[in-house]
Write a structure and sequence with these properties.
The protein is built from 19 helices and 22 strands. The protein is an alpha/beta fold and 515 residues long. The protein folds into 2 domains: 352 residues, Alkaline Phosphatase, subunit A (3-Layer(aba) Sandwich), CATH 3.40.720.10; 117 residues, Gyrase A, domain 2 (2-Layer Sandwich), CATH 3.30.1360. The strands form 5 sheets. Strands 1, 2, 5, 6, 7, 8, 11, 12, 20, 21 and 22 form an 11-stranded mixed sheet that branches. Strands 14-15-17-16 form a 4-stranded antiparallel sheet. A hairpin with a 6-residue loop joins β7 and β8. α4 runs parallel beside α7, α12 packs parallel to α13 and α14 crosses α16. The protein starts with a helix and ends in a 17-residue tail after the last helix.
Length: 515
C-alpha cells in the first residue's frame, strides 16, 4: 500500500518548470511550402517538430489586413491591433500628417544605428513583460531578429535587449531603451557580424542537383533559375541580404552566442529567448520568379532551426527547454494578377472626395490626408461647419463606394455598429481608433493601387492560406491538429508553459494539449 501510494504521488507530481522558453517567429512561413519541401529536410529541424511536437497546421490571424508588425504584436500580446495599437508597419500621424514607423521613438538613441526605437506604440503588455513581472525581473529576456520592428515587438517593454541587423552598417544594432549595448554583442560585432563578411558571401543552392526528381523544383524553375547565384553589393546589400536564406544562419549564430554569453536557462528562474527568422521570397518577388531560391530558403531554414534546437538542448537538456515555432501568418511577396482588372488612384480618390464634400457642405479642406487606401478627415473643419462627423463619414462612404474598383468602404461607425459578420469582425479587429484613418477603402482583388508616393502594387485581397504552429516541450504528446487555430492563443499558451498569467490584453484560452 505504501509503494502504491508513492507511485500514485509520483504519477501526479507536477512537471518541472522549463528553464528556457524559445519563442521562434518565422516571417511568412507557410504550411503548404513547409510540407512541400519536407523530403529535403534533415532530422533536427522541421521533421523533429512534426514527429515529436504538436503541429497545428492551420493557424490564422484573427484580423485583417496582416503584416509583419501587426502579426508580431498579436503573437506576443494575445490581443488584436484594435487593442494592442499596432495595426501595421507604419501609419499616418494625425499631429504631423507624416508617416510613422511602428517602433520609431526619437527619445532613445540607436546603438550601432541611426534608427531610434522603442515599443512605445505597443500599448498592451506582452508575455515577456509578464515573465519579467512574475520573476521580479530576475528572468533574462532577449530578442533577436533580422528586422527592427520584429526584434523590438518580440522583446516587449522590459526585455534585457532587442537586437536586429542594421540596414546601414550590417552590424547587430539595438536601442538605448533597453540600456547600453551588452559587451557580448559588441564583441560579436567586432569579429562575426555580416558587415565583416558580406563582400565574400554568395548565396547558392544548398543541394544543387542532388534532388533532380523533386517535383516543385522542376515544375517552376527553368535550368537558368535552378543554378541561381546571388552576391550582395551596393547601397541595398544589407536589405537584400535580409531577404535571403543566409540571414537565418546569422540570426541563429547570434542566438547561440547569446545563450552562452548570458547563461540563459542555467539557474532556476525561467528565461525567454525570442528569435525572428525569415521564410519569404528573395527581395519580395513573386514565388514564380524565384522558385529555386524559395526552396533553398526552406531548406536552409530547416538547417538553422535544427542547429538552434540541438545547441540549446545539448546545453540545458531537452527536458528543460520549450520551443514554440509560429508564423506571422501573411504572404508579403509581390503579386501580379493573371488579368489586371484596373487601376485605383488612392490620392485622386481623396481629392475627388474633398471636391464632393465642398460642393455639398461648403468650400473647405475636409480631407486632411490619405495614406495608402486610408483617408483622414479633418474633424475640426467638420465641426466648424456645424456638421456631425458621423453624418459626413456616411456621405463619404456612399460617395467612395460608387468608384470603380472599390469593393467596400469602412468608417469607425460602420465597423463598430455594423453586422458581426466574420469578414467585418476581422477588419474591425485590425483597425485602431488612434492610428487608423477615418475611412478604409477596400479595393477589389487584382486592381492596381497607385499613390503619389510613387508606389504601385496589385491588391490581392485575403486569399485563404494556412500557416503552422509547433510546440515542442518535454510534457507534450506528439500530434497533428488540422482544425483552424487562432494566432492569439500563442501568447497565453507560452504563458501557460511558464506558469505565469497571460498578458491582460489576451482573451483566448491557452492550448490545452500540454499536460
Amino acid at each position: 500500500m505504501a509503494l502504491l501510494s508513492l507511485m500514485g504521488a509520483d504519477a501526479q507530481a507536477p512537471t518541472e518548470l522549463p528553464r528556457l522558453v524559445v519563442n521562434i517567429l518565422v516571417d511568412q512561413l507557410r504550411t503548404d511550402y513547409l510540407e512541400t519541401f519536407a523530403p529535403l529536410y534533415g532530422e533536427d529541424g522541421f521533421k523533429l517538430l512534426m514527429s515529436q511536437g504538436q503541429y497545428y497546421s492551420d493557424v490564422q490571424q484573427p484580423f485583417q489586413p496582416v503584416d509583419r508588425a501587426s502579426a508580431t504584436a498579436t503573437i506576443v500580446t494575445g490581443a488584436v491591433p484594435r487593442q494592442h495599437g499596432v495595426p501595421s508597419l507604419s501609419w499616418l500621424s494625425r499631429k504631423t500628417l507624416q508617416p510613422v514607423f511602428c517602433v520609431d521613438d526619437s527619445r532613445y538613441t540607436g546603438l550601432e544605428t541611426s534608427e531610434k526605437s522603442s515599443p512605445n506604440y505597443l500599448v498592451a503588455p506582452t508575455v515577456t513583460d509578464e515573465l519579467k513581472y512574475a520573476t521580479a525581473r530576475r528572468a533574462i529576456v532577449v530578442s533577436i531578429a533580422p528586422e527592427r520592428d520584429m526584434a523590438v515587438l518580440l522583446g516587449g517593454h522590459v526585455a534585457d535587449g532587442a537586437f536586429w541587423l542594421s540596414d546601414e552598417r550590417g552590424l547587430w544594432a539595438g536601442t538605448s531603451f533597453y540600456g547600453q549595448m551588452p559587451a557580448w554583442v559588441a564583441q560579436y560585432n567586432a569579429s562575426e557580424s555580416p558587415a565583416k563578411r558580406i563582400a565574400r558571401m554568395t548565396w547558392e543552392s544548398t543541394y544543387d542537383n542532388a534532388y533532380p526528381s523533386f517535383l516543385y523544383y522542376h515544375a517552376l524553375a527553368d535550368e537558368k533559375a535552378k543554378n541561381f547565384k546571388h552576391t550582395f553589393s551596393g547601397d541595398n546589400r544589407y536589405r537584400d541580404f535580409k531577404t535571403s536564406a543566409l540571414v537565418n544562419d546569422e540570426v541563429v549564430s547570434l542566438a547561440c552566442h547569446c545563450a552562452e554569453a548570458t547563461r540563459l536557462g542555467l539557474d532556476h528562474t525561467p528565461d525567454l529567448l525570442a528569435v525572428g527568422l525569415y521564410a519569404g521570397t528573395f527581395q519580395g518577388q513573386e514565388p514564380a520568379q524565384c522558385p529555386s531560391e524559395l526552396q533553398d530558403t526552406y531548406v536552409r531554414l530547416d538547417i538553422a532551426l535544427g542547429r538552434l534546437i540541438s545547441t540549446l538542448r545539448q546545453r540545458l537538456g531537452k527536458d528543460r527547454v520549450v520551443f514554440v515555432v509560429s508564423s506571422t501568418g501573411y504572404d508579403g511577396s509581390a503579386y501580379n494578377p493573371t488579368i489586371a482588372a484596373g487601376t485605383f488612384n488612392a490620392d485622386r480618390a481623396a481629392k475627388l472626395l474633398n471636391m464632393y464634400l465642398s460642393a455639398k457642405y461648403g468650400q473647405a479642406q475636409y480631407v486632411e490626408a490619405s495614406f495608402g487606401c486610408q483617408i483622414y478627415i479633418d474633424h475640426k473643419v467638420v465641426e466648424q461647419h456645424q456638421l456631425l462627423v458621423n453624418d459626413v463619414l456616411a456621405e463619404c462612404e456612399a460617395f467612395l463606394s460608387q468608384m470603380e474598383g472599390v469593393a467596400d468602404v469602412y468608417s469607425p461607425r460602420s465597423l463598430v455598429l455594423g453586422g458581426f459578420t466574420p469578414e467585418l469582425t476581422l477588419i474591425r479587429n485590425g483597425w485602431s481608433a488612434v492610428r487608423s484613418g477615418d475611412l478604409i477603402v477596400d479595393v477589389c482583388p487584382g486592381w492596381k493601387i497607385v499613390t503619389e508616393q510613387n508606389t504601385e502594387y496589385y491588391y490581392k485581397g485575403h486569399p485563404y492560406t494556412s500557416y503552422p504552429l509547433f510546440i515542442l516541450a518535454p510534457d507534450t504528446e506528439p500530434m497533428k491538429v488540422t482544425e483552424q487555430t487562432s494566432a492569439d492563443v500563442i501568447a497565453p499558451t507560452v504563458a501557460s508553459c511558464l506558469r505565469i498569467r497571460a498578458p491582460n490584453g489576451s482573451r483566448a484560452a491557452p492550448l490545452r494539449s500540454t499536460r
